[in-house]
Fold this protein.
Amino acid sequence: RKEVEQDPGPFNVPEGATVAFNCTYSNSASQSFFWYRQDCRKEPKLLMSVYSSGNEDGRFTAQLNRASQYISLLIRDSKLSDSATYLCVVLSGSARQLTFGSGTQLTVLP
Amino acid sequence: DAGVIQSPRHEVTEMGQEVTLRCKPISGHNSLFWYRQTMMRGLELLIYFNNNVPIDDSGMPEDRFSAKMPNASFSTLKIQPSEPRDSAVYFCASGPGGGREQYFGPGTRLTVT
């Protein structure tokens, strides 16, 4: 079983739609959680951290369920510029390494 | 402010040749990471340095790969000899510590023929 699993997609949604991505992780001792965004042929960039209480940044909402070892990202009112691959990332281990999911590809259509 | 700098951006080499990838982390960051990304395997951590010391190299695929960080502002990843299966994008990332935040460089796209 992979440490971090994501639905690879692709998700093709119209502009203005709401879209949700899910992610599960296997290490119950994982400490911190993040969503990164990677545009085509570019480097990954931190989108937002994920907190147990849930957190929001504009149109983006992240949720964490430690009991189910489940992380989600909700994008409201999607824009063309949201088209990218979204990587679920988990921080765990004594070396405090990030483990990246394989990513979910999103295309927002005009 | 300059981000993480990697060179070269693209490298095409023949099987058996030595390849050296270079990275300059963001000034003040004390953690440095080397990753490899392929379509098949996604993003894989190769090695992690903290304060210039290698902390975890368990992700280094084999002895052909080696990484050094002689000082806080420079790191190299070397592949010798290179093989076609090493073809990938290699990213360097740095962070202020502990891996919580990582800032990635633009990557080096390596093709081994």
